[in-house]
Amino acid sequence: MTYRVLLVDDEPLARERMKRLLLEHHDFVCAGEAGNGDETLAWLRMHRADLVLLDIQMPGRNGLDTAAAIQELPQPPLVVFCTAYDEHALQAFAVKAIDYLLKPVRKEDLCRALQRASEWLAQSGAQADNEATVTAARPAGSRTHLSARTHNGLQLIPLEEVFYFYADQKYVNVHHEGGETLIDDSLRQLEDEFPGLFVRVHRSALVALNRIERLEALNSGGHKVYLRGLADGVPVSRRHLPDVRRVMKEL
């Protein structure tokens, strides 16, 4: 499968560099170029793209406004932002971007973004179902991503990639598809913000409802809940066991 990419940047040299980087990925091909938001939307109304690599700071309609308009198209492509500024990251995910790359874009960062794009495109049906479930359960106005400051800069974690949260002293550890990340949110804040997405199984743990596979009693006593995509179970306290059983019956 070869995926069609639209490159959007007001700097021709930046587009040329991205085209050279794309040549190393045979499953992605540059199908077109645009220098601003209006050109992007005009091109997409005439041609098909699977992915748009989109700059943010452009004359006229900026990348964030362009991405919002892209979502209104009948079959919107995926969007990955490529920008020299990191302060727009949270806004970027509000318009459904799947990744956010800082210029100059490194080969390994582009590779990661394209790998994510290919997975989304290859599994679009299953992913659409999962996203619909998460969207329906998430209260209006709540976040779609969690943010964390790491040694690599700002990290955005999509809610649908979270397995569970575990409180460790003053921080909360997020166990997600990309690994583990510390965030500043408390379990209480997360529980109050996303009541339809996560259930408390222990005073120190919240698990994703749509990840729950089974509940098992341990020979040594107690219970663990096992989550889809995760080998190890999460301990369930006696106090929270009835709630876990109740929500599992409702799944």
Structure write-up:
The chain is 33% helix and 32% strand. The chain has 8 helices and 15 strands. The chain has helices spanning 12-22, 37-46, 63-70, 89-94, 107-122, 124-137, 187-193, 241-250; strands at residues 3-8, 28-34, 51-54, 78-83, 99-102, 145-150, 153-158, 162-168, 171-176, 179-183, 198-202, 205-208, 212-217, 223-227, 234-236. The chain has a 5-stranded parallel sheet with strand order 2-1-3-4-5. It has a 5-stranded antiparallel sheet with strand order 10-9-8-12-11. Helix 2 packs parallel to helix 3.
Number of helices: 8
Kindly state the mean pLDDT as a whole number? 86
Structural class: alpha/beta
Give the overall shape, derived from the CA principal axes: elongated
Along the chain, the helix and strand elements come as EHEHEHEHEHHEEEEEHEEEEEH
Q: Cα distance, first to last residue?
A: 35 Å
Sequence of strands across the biggest β-sheet: 2-1-3-4-5
Helix share of residues?
Answer: 25-40%
Number of separate strands? 15
Strand content: 25-35%
State the major sheet: 5 strands, parallel
Oligomerization state: single chain
Query: What radius of gyration results from the CA coordinates?
Result: 20 Å
Which ranges are low-confidence, i.e. pLDDT below 50, for 5 or more consecutive residues? 125-131
Q: Which key phrases capture this entry?
A:
single chain, 5-stranded antiparallel beta sheet, alpha/beta, 32% strand, 251 residues, elongated, 5-stranded parallel beta sheet
Outline the fold blueprint:
Layout: E1 3-8, H1 12-22, E2 28-34, H2 37-46, E3 51-54, H3 63-70, E4 78-83, H4 89-94, E5 99-102, H5 107-122, H6 124-137, E6 145-150, E7 153-158, E8 162-168, E9 171-176, E10 179-183, H7 187-193, E11 198-202, E12 205-208, E13 212-217, E14 223-227, E15 234-236, H8 241-250
Parallel strand pairs: 1-2, 1-3, 3-4, 4-5
Antiparallel strand pairs: 6-7, 8-9, 8-12, 9-10, 11-12, 13-14, 14-15
